[in-house]
Design goal:
Strand content: 15-25%
Number of domains: 3
Helix content: 25-40%
Strand order of the largest sheet: 11-12-16-15-14-13
Length: 544
């Protein structure tokens, strides 16, 4: 990286750290300025913004609400109405599937974009401070499609990550491993193959994508489709690709030979660090359900530092991690206004909030945000944990979506408890899994939980001699069940009383879990927003 750019980015990082020391002032000023600027909007007029002087006034006049509560206001913006939620014009709608069935359109304004970009620049500044050569070679990032369509009022709707990727300055785009045109393709398999083709042609020093499973899947596909990729390098092109992309894929026998040598060295297994020996760091989400395949990523890239991208969603960018291999981050107190509700109070029906200065280390909270694009006291449905403080600023980590629990008989089993039970079980019985992910089916008919894993087969691939066939599923299920009892007293109570029956574990055919994920991508789910769903409402196919 150019030394001048590095210096600028490191100063952004230093500036953020200084602002962390005056977090209380940041929050007070943010709310006052936001209310003043938006008091004459349709929302501000209806909710009496002109009479708001303090946080208490804000809480009295504006109730905590979710996306469905904002939907009528957003519909007005979609139709082209101005000055609805924000005095600033909405320049973009971030399209996200969220956790609901219908897609959500999140309004984005210029000031929202500016503060998000500043926080990202500070994050990069911290990264290059710790890893000087991270940006020395090409970068593989995987954004969404910039524009899917235009709203009735002519506002573009799409992926903010794709728009940022596409519109970056020329000297930044010059270092991209993959041209933006590839991310316009709807066929996810062809898109992945092209990502691989371009990435294999370049020395990479930095990989970035929110979901670690995306990188794991790319490496799986590389081995599955190695013949296709090798033909592409020797002959040019790659199947039925648009002409504008085909021109970017001429024959490249030098890369083809290098890939073939790598595969031959590993007996058909690709060795990423032998191939990309310039790689310095990988940026992914390390927390929540997105962290389930981090273990597989570490096995593929041993010794490479992992840096969390920060806790952010379509609605807000909220934290800046400053250390490797942790999902913890400093709360960005000048990007949004934050309120919190302790988990027990929220789940008992209370929506009474506290400010960040009232947070206690170790406790878990639902987070409520007010951003620069017109979302006021917005319940994003996320649970965070406070892990410490830096000056006045809380250090938090994303734990899970609030809906990530099952409650057949009052047990309220969180995803994190299943993950911890799996860890404890496999620590005692080191069963090789083909995929780090698994599926959970709350079996209402039998009043028990059914878990579905993929167990690795033996080297010969012969089912009769596979490792999977030697696993005692009943013993494994009993161990898992016991650990869940240790982790959740309500589950133990329901199991001991017979209200819940013993947990069961089943083996799935290889590729079943990834097949369901691929189907989601083929149906239009974007990689950058994909959140793996542990709970399933129907037993999966491929069960043995």
């Amino acid at each position: 990286m150019n030394p001048i750019f590095r210096t600028i980015l490191e100063r952004k990082y230093q500036g953020f750290m200084k602002r962390c020391l005056r977090a209380k002032t940041n929050q007070t000023d943010f709310l006052k300025q936001l209310i003043r600027k938006n008091q004459n909007t349709a929302f501000g007029t209806e909710h009496g913004f002109s009479g708001i002087q303090r946080q208490d006034d804000f809480a009295k006049k504006v109730t905590v609400r979710n996306y469905s509560d904002f939907n009528p206001w957003i519909e007005r913006i979609i139709r082209g109405e101005k000055n609805v939620l924000s005095h600033e014009p909405v320049r973009f709608f971030n399209l996200t599937s969220g956790t609901d069935k219908s897609p959500k359109l999140i309004p984005i304004t210029a000031s929202y974009n500016k503060t998000s970009r500043e926080l990202l620049n500070a994050w990069v500044g911290g990264l290059v401070r710790d890893h000087r050569n991270t940006m020395s070679h090409c970068r593989l990032a995987i954004p969404g499609k910039a524009i899917e369509y235009f709203s009735e009022g002519g506002i573009p709707v799409g992926s903010a990550s794709g728009e940022a990727y596409k519109s970056a300055l020329w000297f930044i785009r010059k270092k991209y491993a993959v041209p933006y045109e590839v991310f316009e393709l709807d066929d996810f398999r062809l898109r992945y193959l092209l990502i691989l083709r371009f990435a294999l042609q370049r020395p990479l020093s930095f990989l970035a994508t929110p979901n670690s499973g995306t990188l794991v899947r790319l490496l799986q596909l590389l081995e599955e489709e190695s013949d296709t990729l090798l033909r592409s390098f020797y002959d040019g092109g790659l199947g039925d690709v648009p002409e504008r992309i085909k021109k970017l894929c001429p024959p490249d026998r030098k890369t083809g030979q290098r890939l073939l040598q790598n595969l031959n060295f590993g007996n058909g297994t690709f060795s990423p660090l032998n191939y990309w020996n310039t790689l310095q760091t990988i940026a992914v989400w390390l927390g929540g359900s997105c962290g389930t395949q981090v273990g597989a990523l570490r096995r593929q890239f041993p010794g490479i530092p992992l840096r969390d991208l920060g806790y952010h969603a379509s609605e807000a960018r909220m934290t800046m991690p400053i250390s490797d291999n942790t999902s913890e981050g400093l709360l960005a107190t000048d990007n949004n206004y934050y309120e919190f509700i302790p988990v027990p109070e929220y789940e008992s029906g209370s929506r009474s909030t506290c400010t960040f200065s009232e947070l206690e280390e170790g406790n878990e909270y639902y987070i409520i945000i007010t951003n620069l694009a017109g979302l006021y006291r917005y319940d994003i449905g996320d649970i965070i944990q406070v892990t410490g403080f830096y000056g006045e600023t809380p250090i938090i980590r994303f734990l899970r979506k609030g809906k990530d629990f099952s409650n057949m008989a009052g047990e309220k089993l969180h995803i994190n408890q299943f993950l911890e039970a799996r860890r404890r079980t496999l620590d005692r019985v080191p069963v090789p899994l083909r995929d780090d992910r698994f599926l959970i089916f709350p079996n209402q008919d039998l009043c028990c939980y059914d878990l579905f894993f993929e167990f690795a087969s033996g080297d010969s691939g012969n089912l009769a001699t596979s490792i999977a066939e030697s696993i005692d599923l009943m013993d494994l299920a009993q161990r898992f069940d016991s650990h869940l009892k240790e982790l959740n007293v309500e589950y133990a109570s329901k199991r001991n009383s017979g209200r819940l029956h013993p947990l069961r574990i089943f083996n799935l055919d290889p590729g079943s879990i990834q097949g369901s994920v691929d189907s989601d991508f083929q149906a239009g789910m974007r990689d950058s927003q994909y959140k793996y769903r542990f709970y399933t409402s129907v037993p999966p196919g491929g069960m043995r």
